[in-house]
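Student: I would love a firmer grasp of how sequence relates to backbone shape in proteins. I am handing you a single protein, as its sequence and its fold in token form. I am told such tokens are a discrete way to write the fold. I hope you can help me see how the letters and the tokens relate. Take your time, and here it is.
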Amino acid sequence: MLNFLRSLVHYPLRRLLAWWVTLRLVEPAPEALGLDHDTPIIYVLPQPALTDMLLLETFCRHHDLPLPDKRWHLGGQSMTSSITLTPLKRRLWQRSVLGKRPGRTPFVELVGLLETCTPQEQEVQLVPVSVFWGRAPGKTFGLWKLLAADSWQFTGRLKRLLSVLINGQNVELYLGHPLLLRELMDARPPEIVGRKVSRLLRVHFRRIRTRVLGPDLSHRHTLIQGVVTSPAIQQAIAAQAEPGSRTHRRLERRARRYGYEIASNMSYPVLRFMDQLLHRLWNQLYAGVRVQGLERAKALAGDHTLIYVPCHRSHIDYLLLSYVLYREGLSPPQVAAGRNLDMPLVGPLLRRGGAFFLRRSFKGNRLYSAVFNEYLHRLLSRGHPVEYFIEGGRSRSGRQLAPKPGMLAMTLRSYLRDTRQELTFVPVHIGYEKVLESASYLKELRGGHKKKESPFDLLRVLGQLRQPFGQVSVTIGEPLTLGTFLNTNVPQWHRSQETHPAWLTQAVTALGRSLSERINRVATLNAVNLVALVILATSHRVIEARLLKEQMALLVDLRRQEPSTDYNLPPGEPDQWLEEAEWLGFVERRGHALGELVLANQQQATLLTWYRNTVLHLFAIPALVAFAFRNNACFERSALHELLAPAWPLIGRELFISLPKDFASALDETLGILTRQGLLQRQGDKWRRPPGFEANSERLHLLGRLIQPALERDYLLLATLLRYPSGSLTRESLEEHSRQLAERLALLSGLNAPEFFDPALFRGLLDVLVEQGWLWQEQERLCFSEALEVAQQRRRTLFDPALRHRLQQITRSPDEGLAVTKGSAE
């Protein structure tokens, strides 16, 4: 009778709930659980809630799963298909049910029943189910916590009713992989086994809540007060305060002011608002967001403090990654943003979305540095996910910039203060077919100065909503756990008790490079960067449409044959890629009696260099091998290795490529791939390029042209250095004169790309030459041995006579410039 009355009440409630509630996210798909429908399935919920049970029932009906109120027979007894980890309060009119006796877990009697069955007769599948009605990161206090969303505190009936009404369109359901109860049983008594099962499920539910909600957020005022009164800040204030004066109180007020300048103020209503706003924006502005590899972050989110380190290509990066993580069921991170974005309208919105702001430089302000370090440490030590850009600013050239040490060093010092935290870096590559800042980047690529951000930029974005911007890809790379990294690279780090140990600088440099390489490793190919790779390899930015399509297909095939699986290929075919690039305005197509032509004007070609640079590193080794055959028809494998091995570290450092442990093996793999593609022909122990009249000869030439600018820069720098005796030039004079020569070469070649003579590239080249032992410094002068001259003489064979002559002429003139440089060195 009670069951009949219960079903009579539950039926209209379930129908009403099914009409009102929308499941925004279900993870994983029920089919991925591999459930056996003939074996008893028991759903386990973390707490008793009628709405959760009715929602689960509707979900099971929709997916043809056993219902939560189904009765299973085990050991001669009947049991229900649902259990709550926290038992229901006992009512006088309710009879005792399975597992609800005081002091007993809900699994003790279940284990006892299962022991009466033979292994061949019965097994039980426990499926944990978590339901979130909205997703508010918990706060110490606040009106929204009293009214609406799920947090770390279990909800009462009134609050749950309000939550259903407010968050009915924003419900998420998470299924755990089934626990096989018999596999957890051992020779111990049922009470101990039952507690073991309960403990495993509690850990699971805690991990899910941590992953989805993140840890509790202290109220902003409380957090800042804790920062100001912390021993680290009080010590910094005491070091600057004058004894017996009012300076201490004034510095404390200043520290509090710095705290308010820095700290975020994450707000759940704003997160909900931005989620809806950005969802419409992406659908209006872009043709979708393609997310790949996110399961890597989800696997760690419950147990590790995640630090997302994406590449930085656009201001949209700030919003895009937070939007993706929120939509995919992960806690949105606290995002480090430049203080230049803390402007009217934009700043308060970003701050409430989770942004905290930092100045570009902490130099000369020890108190500000101490406050920021303490604030970051509190975020990390409490388990909040954090996001920052290791490049510092946006890349104006499209290539991965050298990582800045600031945030990485502060993160590492925070870890040294509390090694109990499991800090894990999550590299992220964000790829655009067209960035919003295309117009400003075009000006900067032509040598213009960076424009200061303004609130009026929002109006410009709204004016671009009708323009096509293609698709965006967000790809998660291989995570890097900080403790494991230190164990490998700094084995003695455990013995250090200092917060600024001597090895810190070297470790930060290695950490930044490793993260940059992991970001680049998952770069995504798309229609625009494929077209850019091919058309910029031609002499006059014009190519036959047929050859363009064939070369794009070749590039995709080269990536498909790589042994690594961390690459992303564009959907569709070459015809579709060309149409996409034309639709986005990057190329023009012209009909011709002998075949269609594709061309890029001066403005399009300059902008395409940005998109080419985002993926150029993916083809570095094949392009280097192909370039070697430009001036040499045939090579023995040993001679080719001897020629290319010295150049590879320079290219790998410039493009942030993970250098293979054995370049010889990488060379063999590349030769095999190019041979299978028909770009090289093997004859015994030799490899030969195809005859010039064959189509594959032109394809090999275009592939080799990809790496030519990098090789030309290397040649210019070394040729300039070797014109003087060892110990003649300072590092600064060599960098500047090499930059001037590269700029001259670009102008004479008609190459309108200032990134070709970026000073940072020459600084990086000198760093590698020092690391490899080719150069060293004595009394601030660069010294080298004859081995460098021999290697440079050998590398001359890479270039054909015409190109070699042009490079030699560039390095020999003008004499006035050389005399000035030499004089400054002396």
Summary: The chain has four domains: 2-213, 221-514, 527-646+659-703, 708-825.
